[in-house]
Amino acid sequence: MPEIAFDRYYRFDEITNLLNEFASEFPNLVSVESIGKSHEGRDIWIATVTNKKTGSPLDKPAFWADGNIHASEVSASAAVLHLLNKVCTRYGKDEQITRVLDTRTLYLVPRLNPDGAEWSLESPPRVVRSSTRPYPYEEEDIEGLERSDLDGDGRILSMRIKDSNGPWKSCEAEPRILVRREPTDVGGTYYRLLPEGLLHNWDGVTLRPKRIQQGLDMNRNFPSGWRQEHEQFGAGPYPTSEPEIRAAVEAIVDRPNICGAVAFHTFSGVHLRPPSRYADDEMPSEDLWAFQKIGQVGTEMTGYPAISTYHEFRYHPKEVITGVFDDWMYEHQGVFPWITEIWSPQRQAGITDYKYIEWFREHPIEDDIKLLKWSDERLDGLGHIDWKAFTHPQLGEVEIGGWDAHFAFRNPPPQFLEAEISPLGDWIIWQALCSPKLELREVKIEPAGTAFRVRAIVQNVGWLPTNVTEKAKKNKLCRGVRAEISLNGQALSGAGESAPTWLHGGKLRQDAGQLVGRNHVSAGGFGYQFNDTSDVAVFEWVVSSGEYSIVIEHERAGKISAQIVCA
Protein backbone atom coordinates (compact mmCIF):
# COMPACT_ATOMS: atom_id res chain seq x y z
CA MET A 1 0.00 0.00 0.00
CA PRO A 2 1.25 3.51 -0.71
CA GLU A 3 2.37 5.11 2.55
CA ILE A 4 0.50 8.39 2.54
CA ALA A 5 -0.16 10.66 5.51
CA PHE A 6 -2.40 13.69 5.68
CA ASP A 7 -0.66 15.57 8.45
CA ARG A 8 1.96 17.08 6.13
CA TYR A 9 2.33 18.63 2.68
CA TYR A 10 4.14 16.85 -0.13
CA ARG A 11 6.78 18.10 -2.56
CA PHE A 12 6.59 17.37 -6.29
CA ASP A 13 8.88 14.31 -6.28
CA GLU A 14 6.91 12.80 -3.41
CA ILE A 15 3.60 13.28 -5.25
CA THR A 16 5.10 11.71 -8.36
CA ASN A 17 6.20 8.66 -6.37
CA LEU A 18 2.84 8.38 -4.60
CA LEU A 19 0.88 8.45 -7.86
CA ASN A 20 3.09 5.77 -9.36
CA GLU A 21 2.65 3.67 -6.22
CA PHE A 22 -1.14 3.92 -6.51
CA ALA A 23 -0.96 2.85 -10.16
CA SER A 24 1.27 -0.09 -9.19
CA GLU A 25 -0.83 -1.14 -6.17
CA PHE A 26 -4.21 -0.73 -7.91
CA PRO A 27 -3.52 -1.51 -11.60
CA ASN A 28 -7.17 -2.33 -12.32
CA LEU A 29 -8.28 1.07 -11.00
CA VAL A 30 -5.53 3.65 -11.56
CA SER A 31 -3.54 4.85 -14.55
CA VAL A 32 -1.13 7.78 -14.36
CA GLU A 33 0.11 9.93 -17.22
CA SER A 34 1.43 13.41 -17.87
CA ILE A 35 -0.87 15.92 -19.56
CA GLY A 36 1.97 18.39 -20.14
CA LYS A 37 4.98 20.15 -18.70
CA SER A 38 5.13 23.17 -16.41
CA HIS A 39 7.13 26.32 -17.11
CA GLU A 40 10.15 24.77 -15.39
CA GLY A 41 9.65 21.40 -17.08
CA ARG A 42 7.89 19.38 -14.39
CA ASP A 43 5.22 16.88 -15.40
CA ILE A 44 1.60 17.70 -14.69
CA TRP A 45 0.26 14.33 -13.61
CA ILE A 46 -3.28 13.07 -14.08
CA ALA A 47 -4.61 9.93 -12.41
CA THR A 48 -7.44 8.26 -14.31
CA VAL A 49 -9.44 6.23 -11.81
CA THR A 50 -12.10 3.68 -12.78
CA ASN A 51 -12.71 -0.05 -12.77
CA LYS A 52 -11.09 -1.01 -16.05
CA LYS A 53 -12.94 -4.34 -16.10
CA THR A 54 -16.29 -2.54 -16.53
CA GLY A 55 -15.23 -0.48 -19.52
CA SER A 56 -12.82 2.04 -20.95
CA PRO A 57 -12.45 5.34 -19.03
CA LEU A 58 -13.73 7.35 -22.01
CA ASP A 59 -16.82 5.14 -22.32
CA LYS A 60 -18.15 6.21 -18.91
CA PRO A 61 -19.43 9.53 -17.56
CA ALA A 62 -16.57 11.32 -15.80
CA PHE A 63 -15.74 13.91 -13.18
CA TRP A 64 -12.66 16.15 -13.02
CA ALA A 65 -10.91 17.38 -9.87
CA ASP A 66 -7.71 19.41 -9.72
CA GLY A 67 -5.76 21.39 -7.16
CA ASN A 68 -2.98 23.85 -6.52
CA ILE A 69 -3.31 26.16 -9.52
CA HIS A 70 -2.24 28.86 -7.07
CA ALA A 71 1.27 28.33 -5.80
CA SER A 72 0.85 28.39 -2.03
CA GLU A 73 -2.53 26.61 -1.88
CA VAL A 74 -0.96 23.22 -1.21
CA SER A 75 -3.88 21.80 0.77
CA ALA A 76 -5.66 21.70 -2.59
CA SER A 77 -3.20 19.00 -3.69
CA ALA A 78 -3.81 17.16 -0.44
CA ALA A 79 -7.58 17.16 -1.08
CA VAL A 80 -7.14 15.49 -4.47
CA LEU A 81 -4.69 12.93 -3.07
CA HIS A 82 -7.08 12.19 -0.21
CA LEU A 83 -9.86 11.47 -2.69
CA LEU A 84 -7.57 9.18 -4.68
CA ASN A 85 -6.58 7.32 -1.52
CA LYS A 86 -10.20 7.05 -0.36
CA VAL A 87 -11.63 5.57 -3.58
CA CYS A 88 -8.76 3.11 -4.00
CA THR A 89 -8.71 1.80 -0.44
CA ARG A 90 -12.50 1.74 -0.01
CA TYR A 91 -13.35 0.18 -3.38
CA GLY A 92 -15.25 -3.05 -2.78
CA LYS A 93 -16.02 -2.02 0.81
CA ASP A 94 -18.07 1.15 0.36
CA GLU A 95 -21.18 0.89 -1.83
CA GLN A 96 -21.03 4.45 -3.19
CA ILE A 97 -17.32 4.29 -3.99
CA THR A 98 -17.65 0.88 -5.62
CA ARG A 99 -20.54 2.10 -7.74
CA VAL A 100 -18.76 5.26 -8.81
CA LEU A 101 -15.66 3.39 -9.99
CA ASP A 102 -17.70 0.66 -11.67
CA THR A 103 -19.85 3.11 -13.61
CA ARG A 104 -17.94 6.40 -13.79
CA THR A 105 -14.42 7.75 -14.30
CA LEU A 106 -12.53 10.18 -12.10
CA TYR A 107 -9.81 12.38 -13.60
CA LEU A 108 -7.62 13.67 -10.75
CA VAL A 109 -4.85 16.28 -11.13
CA PRO A 110 -3.33 16.85 -7.68
CA ARG A 111 -0.91 19.61 -8.61
CA LEU A 112 -1.68 21.74 -11.64
CA ASN A 113 1.08 24.22 -10.80
CA PRO A 114 4.08 22.19 -9.61
CA ASP A 115 6.62 25.01 -9.95
CA GLY A 116 4.86 27.53 -7.74
CA ALA A 117 4.08 24.88 -5.12
CA GLU A 118 7.76 23.98 -4.85
CA TRP A 119 8.57 27.60 -4.05
CA SER A 120 5.85 27.81 -1.42
CA LEU A 121 7.12 24.68 0.35
CA GLU A 122 10.63 26.01 0.76
CA SER A 123 11.78 27.32 4.14
CA PRO A 124 11.30 30.20 4.30
CA PRO A 125 8.59 30.06 1.63
CA ARG A 126 8.79 31.97 -1.62
CA VAL A 127 5.18 32.97 -2.17
CA VAL A 128 3.92 33.99 -5.60
CA ARG A 129 0.37 33.90 -6.92
CA SER A 130 0.85 31.20 -9.55
CA SER A 131 3.62 30.47 -12.01
CA THR A 132 7.32 31.11 -11.47
CA ARG A 133 7.52 32.62 -14.97
CA PRO A 134 8.37 36.34 -15.01
CA TYR A 135 5.36 38.39 -16.12
CA PRO A 136 4.51 40.94 -17.42
CA TYR A 137 8.18 42.01 -17.60
CA GLU A 138 11.36 39.95 -17.66
CA GLU A 139 13.43 42.34 -15.56
CA GLU A 140 13.24 42.55 -11.80
CA ASP A 141 12.04 45.63 -9.98
CA ILE A 142 15.13 47.41 -8.64
CA GLU A 143 13.38 49.37 -5.90
CA GLY A 144 11.05 48.65 -3.00
CA LEU A 145 10.74 46.27 -0.08
CA GLU A 146 11.33 42.59 -0.78
CA ARG A 147 9.85 40.09 1.66
CA SER A 148 12.53 38.04 3.41
CA ASP A 149 13.24 36.23 6.68
CA LEU A 150 15.40 38.78 8.51
CA ASP A 151 15.65 37.07 11.90
CA GLY A 152 16.22 33.57 10.53
CA ASP A 153 13.26 31.87 12.19
CA GLY A 154 11.99 30.34 8.91
CA ARG A 155 8.97 32.65 8.77
CA ILE A 156 8.20 35.90 7.01
CA LEU A 157 6.04 37.94 9.37
CA SER A 158 5.38 41.68 9.72
CA MET A 159 7.49 44.61 10.92
CA ARG A 160 5.94 47.38 12.96
CA ILE A 161 7.68 50.73 13.12
CA LYS A 162 6.79 53.55 15.48
CA ASP A 163 5.47 56.45 13.45
CA SER A 164 3.54 59.46 14.76
CA ASN A 165 1.39 59.33 11.63
CA GLY A 166 1.05 55.53 11.56
CA PRO A 167 -2.44 54.08 11.04
CA TRP A 168 -2.17 51.37 13.76
CA LYS A 169 -2.13 51.24 17.54
CA SER A 170 -2.15 48.51 20.20
CA CYS A 171 -5.54 47.13 21.24
CA GLU A 172 -6.43 48.10 24.82
CA ALA A 173 -8.18 44.79 25.47
CA GLU A 174 -5.34 42.70 23.99
CA PRO A 175 -2.07 44.64 23.46
CA ARG A 176 -0.58 41.96 21.19
CA ILE A 177 -3.14 42.87 18.55
CA LEU A 178 -2.92 45.99 16.43
CA VAL A 179 -6.12 47.89 15.67
CA ARG A 180 -6.78 50.76 13.36
CA ARG A 181 -6.20 54.22 14.71
CA GLU A 182 -9.42 56.16 15.11
CA PRO A 183 -9.90 59.19 12.81
CA THR A 184 -9.40 61.70 15.64
CA ASP A 185 -6.69 59.86 17.64
CA VAL A 186 -3.63 61.94 18.61
CA GLY A 187 -0.92 61.78 21.22
CA GLY A 188 -0.54 58.01 21.44
CA THR A 189 1.93 55.42 20.20
CA TYR A 190 1.22 54.58 16.59
CA TYR A 191 2.76 52.20 14.11
CA ARG A 192 3.34 51.68 10.43
CA LEU A 193 3.14 48.02 9.29
CA LEU A 194 5.38 46.47 6.63
CA PRO A 195 6.17 42.91 5.61
CA GLU A 196 9.38 41.55 7.08
CA GLY A 197 12.12 42.25 4.55
CA LEU A 198 14.82 44.47 3.06
CA LEU A 199 14.60 47.59 0.91
CA HIS A 200 16.25 47.88 -2.49
CA ASN A 201 17.81 51.21 -3.52
CA TRP A 202 16.01 53.00 -0.71
CA ASP A 203 15.97 56.79 -0.73
CA GLY A 204 15.70 56.89 3.05
CA VAL A 205 12.17 58.32 3.03
CA THR A 206 9.57 56.67 0.80
CA LEU A 207 8.36 53.10 1.26
CA ARG A 208 6.78 50.92 -1.37
CA PRO A 209 6.72 47.16 -2.08
CA LYS A 210 9.08 45.66 -4.60
CA ARG A 211 7.02 44.42 -7.52
CA ILE A 212 6.88 40.62 -7.55
CA GLN A 213 8.52 39.54 -10.79
CA GLN A 214 6.18 36.56 -11.16
CA GLY A 215 2.90 38.39 -11.70
CA LEU A 216 0.76 35.70 -13.33
CA ASP A 217 -2.55 34.49 -11.96
CA MET A 218 -3.15 31.33 -13.95
CA ASN A 219 -6.79 31.26 -12.90
CA ARG A 220 -7.28 34.27 -15.16
CA ASN A 221 -5.74 32.56 -18.22
CA PHE A 222 -8.70 30.40 -19.31
CA PRO A 223 -10.48 31.29 -22.57
CA SER A 224 -13.91 32.27 -21.23
CA GLY A 225 -14.18 36.05 -20.83
CA TRP A 226 -10.39 36.47 -20.93
CA ARG A 227 -9.23 40.10 -20.74
CA GLN A 228 -5.89 41.81 -21.24
CA GLU A 229 -3.57 42.89 -18.43
CA HIS A 230 -4.94 46.44 -18.23
CA GLU A 231 -8.38 45.00 -17.41
CA GLN A 232 -7.52 41.76 -15.63
CA PHE A 233 -4.26 41.62 -13.69
CA GLY A 234 -2.16 38.50 -14.21
CA ALA A 235 -4.20 37.09 -17.11
CA GLY A 236 -1.19 36.43 -19.35
CA PRO A 237 -0.54 37.62 -22.91
CA TYR A 238 -3.33 35.51 -24.44
CA PRO A 239 -5.76 32.77 -23.35
CA THR A 240 -3.98 29.49 -22.45
CA SER A 241 -0.61 31.19 -22.90
CA GLU A 242 0.69 29.31 -19.86
CA PRO A 243 1.71 25.68 -20.42
CA GLU A 244 -0.08 24.51 -17.28
CA ILE A 245 -3.40 26.01 -18.39
CA ARG A 246 -3.00 24.84 -21.97
CA ALA A 247 -2.35 21.33 -20.63
CA ALA A 248 -5.50 21.41 -18.49
CA VAL A 249 -7.68 22.81 -21.28
CA GLU A 250 -6.45 20.27 -23.81
CA ALA A 251 -6.84 17.42 -21.32
CA ILE A 252 -10.44 18.38 -20.61
CA VAL A 253 -11.36 18.91 -24.27
CA ASP A 254 -9.82 15.53 -25.08
CA ARG A 255 -12.09 13.95 -22.46
CA PRO A 256 -15.60 14.91 -23.60
CA ASN A 257 -17.11 12.49 -21.07
CA ILE A 258 -16.46 14.99 -18.26
CA CYS A 259 -19.79 16.05 -16.73
CA GLY A 260 -18.63 18.16 -13.77
CA ALA A 261 -15.59 19.49 -11.97
CA VAL A 262 -14.21 20.80 -8.72
CA ALA A 263 -11.04 22.88 -8.61
CA PHE A 264 -9.59 23.10 -5.10
CA HIS A 265 -8.21 26.41 -3.81
CA THR A 266 -7.71 28.09 -0.43
CA PHE A 267 -9.00 29.72 1.70
CA SER A 268 -12.48 30.75 2.95
CA GLY A 269 -14.29 27.48 3.54
CA VAL A 270 -16.82 27.94 0.73
CA HIS A 271 -17.96 26.33 -2.50
CA LEU A 272 -18.06 28.92 -5.29
CA ARG A 273 -20.12 28.55 -8.43
CA PRO A 274 -20.21 30.50 -11.67
CA PRO A 275 -20.95 32.81 -13.28
CA SER A 276 -18.25 35.20 -12.11
CA ARG A 277 -18.95 38.18 -14.31
CA TYR A 278 -22.74 38.39 -14.64
CA ALA A 279 -25.80 37.91 -12.50
CA ASP A 280 -27.69 34.68 -11.92
CA ASP A 281 -30.74 35.87 -13.85
CA GLU A 282 -28.69 35.84 -17.05
CA MET A 283 -28.11 32.08 -16.88
CA PRO A 284 -30.74 29.43 -17.69
CA SER A 285 -32.98 28.93 -14.70
CA GLU A 286 -32.70 25.16 -15.01
CA ASP A 287 -28.93 25.42 -14.54
CA LEU A 288 -29.29 27.73 -11.55
CA TRP A 289 -31.71 25.31 -9.90
CA ALA A 290 -29.31 22.39 -10.46
CA PHE A 291 -26.38 24.43 -9.11
CA GLN A 292 -28.44 25.27 -6.03
CA LYS A 293 -29.36 21.62 -5.40
CA ILE A 294 -25.76 20.44 -5.84
CA GLY A 295 -24.57 23.25 -3.59
CA GLN A 296 -27.16 22.45 -0.92
CA VAL A 297 -25.88 18.88 -0.74
CA GLY A 298 -22.30 20.19 -0.71
CA THR A 299 -23.09 22.29 2.36
CA GLU A 300 -24.78 19.37 4.11
CA MET A 301 -21.84 17.05 3.42
CA THR A 302 -18.92 19.42 4.07
CA GLY A 303 -20.22 22.29 6.21
CA TYR A 304 -19.07 24.79 3.58
CA PRO A 305 -21.65 27.31 2.33
CA ALA A 306 -22.30 27.14 -1.43
CA ILE A 307 -22.40 30.66 -2.85
CA SER A 308 -22.37 32.67 -6.07
CA THR A 309 -19.02 34.17 -7.04
CA TYR A 310 -20.68 37.17 -8.70
CA HIS A 311 -23.15 37.93 -5.94
CA GLU A 312 -21.19 36.99 -2.80
CA PHE A 313 -17.46 36.66 -3.45
CA ARG A 314 -16.17 39.72 -5.26
CA TYR A 315 -12.84 41.24 -4.30
CA HIS A 316 -14.31 44.69 -5.01
CA PRO A 317 -18.01 45.48 -5.49
CA LYS A 318 -17.27 47.29 -8.78
CA GLU A 319 -15.03 44.59 -10.23
CA VAL A 320 -15.47 41.05 -11.54
CA ILE A 321 -12.94 38.34 -12.33
CA THR A 322 -12.70 36.75 -15.77
CA GLY A 323 -10.76 34.04 -17.55
CA VAL A 324 -11.40 31.64 -14.67
CA PHE A 325 -11.66 27.86 -14.70
CA ASP A 326 -15.26 27.51 -13.56
CA ASP A 327 -16.62 30.05 -16.05
CA TRP A 328 -14.80 28.26 -18.87
CA MET A 329 -16.08 24.85 -17.78
CA TYR A 330 -19.66 26.09 -17.60
CA GLU A 331 -19.75 28.39 -20.63
CA HIS A 332 -17.51 26.50 -23.06
CA GLN A 333 -17.87 22.91 -21.88
CA GLY A 334 -21.42 23.11 -20.57
CA VAL A 335 -20.93 21.23 -17.30
CA PHE A 336 -21.38 22.07 -13.61
CA PRO A 337 -18.06 23.24 -12.10
CA TRP A 338 -17.20 24.47 -8.60
CA ILE A 339 -14.29 26.21 -6.94
CA THR A 340 -13.87 24.89 -3.41
CA GLU A 341 -11.92 27.24 -1.15
CA ILE A 342 -10.52 25.01 1.62
CA TRP A 343 -10.19 26.16 5.24
CA SER A 344 -11.72 28.99 7.26
CA PRO A 345 -9.63 30.21 10.23
CA GLN A 346 -12.56 32.41 11.21
CA ARG A 347 -14.88 29.44 11.52
CA GLN A 348 -12.23 27.55 13.48
CA ALA A 349 -12.14 30.45 15.92
CA GLY A 350 -15.92 30.46 16.34
CA ILE A 351 -16.65 33.33 13.95
CA THR A 352 -19.59 32.15 11.87
CA ASP A 353 -21.59 35.22 10.85
CA TYR A 354 -19.24 36.94 8.43
CA LYS A 355 -18.94 37.82 4.75
CA TYR A 356 -16.01 36.09 3.16
CA ILE A 357 -14.26 38.92 1.33
CA GLU A 358 -15.82 41.90 3.08
CA TRP A 359 -14.58 40.60 6.44
CA PHE A 360 -11.02 41.61 5.55
CA ARG A 361 -12.12 45.18 4.91
CA GLU A 362 -14.28 45.55 8.00
CA HIS A 363 -14.88 43.39 11.07
CA PRO A 364 -15.16 43.92 14.84
CA ILE A 365 -12.09 43.71 17.08
CA GLU A 366 -13.82 40.86 18.91
CA ASP A 367 -13.09 38.71 15.86
CA ASP A 368 -9.35 39.39 16.14
CA ILE A 369 -9.44 38.50 19.81
CA LYS A 370 -11.22 35.22 19.03
CA LEU A 371 -8.59 34.41 16.42
CA LEU A 372 -5.80 35.20 18.85
CA LYS A 373 -7.36 32.91 21.45
CA TRP A 374 -7.62 30.19 18.82
CA SER A 375 -3.93 30.64 18.00
CA ASP A 376 -2.99 30.46 21.68
CA GLU A 377 -5.12 27.43 22.51
CA ARG A 378 -5.19 25.37 19.31
CA LEU A 379 -2.00 26.39 17.48
CA ASP A 380 0.35 26.58 20.46
CA GLY A 381 0.73 30.30 19.82
CA LEU A 382 2.14 29.78 16.33
CA GLY A 383 -0.62 31.61 14.46
CA HIS A 384 0.18 35.00 15.98
CA ILE A 385 3.79 35.61 17.01
CA ASP A 386 4.58 38.01 19.84
CA TRP A 387 6.36 41.18 18.77
CA LYS A 388 10.09 41.25 19.42
CA ALA A 389 12.65 44.01 18.97
CA PHE A 390 14.96 43.79 15.97
CA THR A 391 17.59 46.15 14.59
CA HIS A 392 16.84 46.54 10.91
CA PRO A 393 19.93 47.36 8.82
CA GLN A 394 18.07 50.18 7.05
CA LEU A 395 15.10 51.17 9.21
CA GLY A 396 16.79 50.92 12.59
CA GLU A 397 14.74 49.75 15.56
CA VAL A 398 11.65 47.78 14.52
CA GLU A 399 9.60 44.91 15.96
CA ILE A 400 8.95 41.64 14.11
CA GLY A 401 5.85 39.54 14.78
CA GLY A 402 2.11 39.45 14.13
CA TRP A 403 0.07 36.92 12.18
CA ASP A 404 1.84 34.08 10.40
CA ALA A 405 -0.69 33.95 7.59
CA HIS A 406 1.24 31.34 5.62
CA PHE A 407 0.97 28.90 8.52
CA ALA A 408 -2.47 29.61 9.96
CA PHE A 409 -4.55 31.15 7.18
CA ARG A 410 -3.40 30.05 3.74
CA ASN A 411 -3.74 26.31 4.42
CA PRO A 412 -4.87 24.22 7.39
CA PRO A 413 -2.01 23.70 9.83
CA PRO A 414 -0.95 20.06 9.31
CA GLN A 415 -2.72 18.73 12.39
CA PHE A 416 -6.07 19.95 11.04
CA LEU A 417 -5.54 18.92 7.41
CA GLU A 418 -7.19 15.50 7.17
CA ALA A 419 -10.33 16.44 9.08
CA GLU A 420 -10.76 19.46 6.82
CA ILE A 421 -10.34 17.74 3.46
CA SER A 422 -11.94 14.34 4.08
CA PRO A 423 -15.61 15.37 3.50
CA LEU A 424 -14.71 17.20 0.29
CA GLY A 425 -14.07 13.96 -1.58
CA ASP A 426 -17.43 12.56 -0.49
CA TRP A 427 -19.15 15.45 -2.25
CA ILE A 428 -17.19 14.75 -5.44
CA ILE A 429 -18.24 11.10 -5.35
CA TRP A 430 -21.87 12.20 -4.92
CA GLN A 431 -21.62 14.63 -7.84
CA ALA A 432 -20.04 12.00 -10.09
CA LEU A 433 -23.00 9.70 -9.37
CA CYS A 434 -25.39 12.49 -10.43
CA SER A 435 -24.05 12.41 -13.99
CA PRO A 436 -26.15 11.07 -16.87
CA LYS A 437 -25.79 7.33 -17.49
CA LEU A 438 -27.08 5.30 -20.42
CA GLU A 439 -28.44 1.83 -19.72
CA LEU A 440 -29.73 -0.65 -22.27
CA ARG A 441 -33.19 -1.67 -21.16
CA GLU A 442 -33.99 -4.21 -23.85
CA VAL A 443 -33.23 -5.40 -27.37
CA LYS A 444 -36.30 -6.90 -29.04
CA ILE A 445 -35.99 -9.09 -32.13
CA GLU A 446 -39.19 -9.96 -34.00
CA PRO A 447 -39.72 -11.68 -37.36
CA ALA A 448 -40.73 -9.31 -40.17
CA GLY A 449 -41.48 -11.51 -43.16
CA THR A 450 -38.17 -12.94 -44.31
CA ALA A 451 -36.29 -10.32 -42.24
CA PHE A 452 -36.16 -9.28 -38.60
CA ARG A 453 -37.22 -6.11 -36.78
CA VAL A 454 -34.72 -5.02 -34.14
CA ARG A 455 -35.69 -2.52 -31.45
CA ALA A 456 -33.04 -1.28 -28.98
CA ILE A 457 -34.43 0.63 -26.00
CA VAL A 458 -32.03 2.79 -24.01
CA GLN A 459 -32.65 4.98 -20.97
CA ASN A 460 -30.80 7.73 -19.13
CA VAL A 461 -30.80 6.55 -15.51
CA GLY A 462 -28.77 9.51 -14.20
CA TRP A 463 -30.08 12.50 -12.27
CA LEU A 464 -28.75 14.95 -14.86
CA PRO A 465 -29.81 14.99 -18.52
CA THR A 466 -27.41 13.68 -21.13
CA ASN A 467 -26.53 17.26 -22.09
CA VAL A 468 -25.82 17.95 -18.37
CA THR A 469 -26.65 21.69 -18.58
CA GLU A 470 -29.14 23.80 -20.48
CA LYS A 471 -26.14 25.87 -21.55
CA ALA A 472 -24.72 22.82 -23.33
CA LYS A 473 -28.05 22.08 -25.00
CA LYS A 474 -28.67 25.64 -26.21
CA ASN A 475 -25.12 26.15 -27.40
CA LYS A 476 -24.90 22.66 -28.94
CA LEU A 477 -21.83 21.78 -26.88
CA CYS A 478 -22.46 18.03 -27.08
CA ARG A 479 -24.10 15.63 -29.49
CA GLY A 480 -27.22 13.59 -28.79
CA VAL A 481 -27.58 9.87 -28.14
CA ARG A 482 -26.43 7.91 -31.19
CA ALA A 483 -26.95 4.29 -32.20
CA GLU A 484 -25.29 2.29 -34.96
CA ILE A 485 -25.81 -1.27 -36.20
CA SER A 486 -23.33 -3.33 -38.18
CA LEU A 487 -23.15 -6.87 -39.50
CA ASN A 488 -20.34 -8.67 -37.71
CA GLY A 489 -17.29 -8.99 -39.93
CA GLN A 490 -18.54 -6.52 -42.54
CA ALA A 491 -17.32 -2.94 -42.76
CA LEU A 492 -19.84 -0.18 -43.33
CA SER A 493 -20.23 1.06 -46.88
CA GLY A 494 -17.80 3.67 -48.05
CA ALA A 495 -18.22 6.72 -50.24
CA GLY A 496 -20.04 6.02 -53.48
CA GLU A 497 -21.35 2.65 -52.31
CA SER A 498 -24.96 1.68 -51.75
CA ALA A 499 -26.50 0.86 -48.40
CA PRO A 500 -25.70 -2.71 -47.31
CA THR A 501 -28.02 -5.36 -48.64
CA TRP A 502 -28.69 -6.73 -45.18
CA LEU A 503 -30.33 -3.44 -44.06
CA HIS A 504 -34.00 -3.31 -45.13
CA GLY A 505 -35.29 -0.54 -42.87
CA GLY A 506 -33.95 2.19 -40.64
CA LYS A 507 -30.69 4.12 -40.91
CA LEU A 508 -27.35 2.60 -40.08
CA ARG A 509 -26.61 5.45 -37.69
CA GLN A 510 -29.45 7.13 -35.81
CA ASP A 511 -29.56 10.19 -33.52
CA ALA A 512 -32.17 10.43 -30.76
CA GLY A 513 -31.14 13.83 -29.41
CA GLN A 514 -30.80 14.45 -25.67
CA LEU A 515 -32.48 12.47 -22.91
CA VAL A 516 -33.72 14.11 -19.73
CA GLY A 517 -32.68 13.08 -16.24
CA ARG A 518 -34.57 13.54 -12.98
CA ASN A 519 -33.22 16.94 -11.95
CA HIS A 520 -36.16 18.79 -13.52
CA VAL A 521 -38.82 17.06 -11.39
CA SER A 522 -40.50 19.55 -9.05
CA ALA A 523 -41.35 18.94 -5.40
CA GLY A 524 -44.70 17.36 -4.52
CA GLY A 525 -47.14 15.57 -6.78
CA PHE A 526 -50.44 17.36 -6.06
CA GLY A 527 -51.99 15.51 -9.02
CA TYR A 528 -50.19 17.59 -11.63
CA GLN A 529 -47.12 15.47 -12.33
CA PHE A 530 -46.70 13.77 -15.69
CA ASN A 531 -43.37 12.03 -15.87
CA ASP A 532 -43.17 11.26 -19.56
CA THR A 533 -40.52 9.04 -21.14
CA SER A 534 -38.23 11.77 -22.43
CA ASP A 535 -35.49 9.79 -20.70
CA VAL A 536 -35.97 6.89 -23.13
CA ALA A 537 -34.85 6.44 -26.74
CA VAL A 538 -35.94 3.69 -29.13
CA PHE A 539 -33.85 2.72 -32.15
CA GLU A 540 -35.27 0.44 -34.87
CA TRP A 541 -33.85 -1.47 -37.82
CA VAL A 542 -35.09 -4.17 -40.19
CA VAL A 543 -32.27 -6.55 -41.10
CA SER A 544 -31.55 -9.90 -42.70
CA SER A 545 -30.59 -12.92 -40.64
CA GLY A 546 -27.12 -12.77 -39.19
CA GLU A 547 -25.04 -11.73 -36.19
CA TYR A 548 -24.95 -7.99 -35.48
CA SER A 549 -23.25 -5.45 -33.26
CA ILE A 550 -25.17 -2.51 -31.82
CA VAL A 551 -23.33 0.45 -30.33
CA ILE A 552 -25.29 3.15 -28.49
CA GLU A 553 -23.34 6.08 -27.11
CA HIS A 554 -23.34 9.60 -25.81
CA GLU A 555 -20.04 11.35 -25.15
CA ARG A 556 -21.18 12.30 -21.63
CA ALA A 557 -23.58 9.50 -20.71
CA GLY A 558 -21.44 6.54 -21.72
CA LYS A 559 -21.22 3.82 -24.34
CA ILE A 560 -23.14 0.54 -24.62
CA SER A 561 -22.32 -2.37 -26.90
CA ALA A 562 -24.58 -5.37 -27.59
CA GLN A 563 -24.25 -8.47 -29.73
CA ILE A 564 -27.43 -9.94 -31.22
CA VAL A 565 -28.32 -12.88 -33.43
CA CYS A 566 -31.22 -12.68 -35.87
CA ALA A 567 -32.15 -16.20 -36.92
Structure description:
- It is built from 14 helices and 24 strands.
- Helices cover 24% and strands 26% of the residues.
- The relative contact order is 0.12.
- The strands form six sheets. An eight-stranded mixed β-sheet has the order 1-2-4-3-11-14-12-13, with helices on both faces.
- The protein has helices at 12-25, 75-90, 95-103, 114-120, 243-253, 285-302, 309-312, 325-331, 345-348, 358-361, 365-378, 405-408, 417-433, 470-474, and strands spanning 30-37, 43-49, 62-67, 105-109, 144-147, 158-162, 168-170, 178-180, 191-195, 197-200, 258-266, 270-273, 306-308, 336-342, 384-392, 396-403, 438-448, 451-460, 482-487, 503-505, 509-511, 536-543, 546-554, 558-566.
- The longest helix has 18 residues, at 285-302.
- The radius of gyration is 28 Å and the shape is elongated.
- It is α+β, with helices and mostly antiparallel strands.
Strand content: 25-35%
How would you describe the oligomerization state of the chains in this entry? single chain
Q: Describe the sheet with the most strands.
A: 8 strands, mixed
Q: Give the uncertain stretches in residue-range form.
A: none
- Silhouette: elongated
Q: By helix and strand content, what is the structural category?
A: alpha+beta
Query: What's the number of extended β-strand segments?
Result: 24
* Average pLDDT figure: 96
Can you count the helices?
14
Any descriptors?
single chain, 567 residues, alpha+beta, 8-stranded mixed β-sheet, 4-stranded antiparallel β-sheet, 14 helices, 24 strands
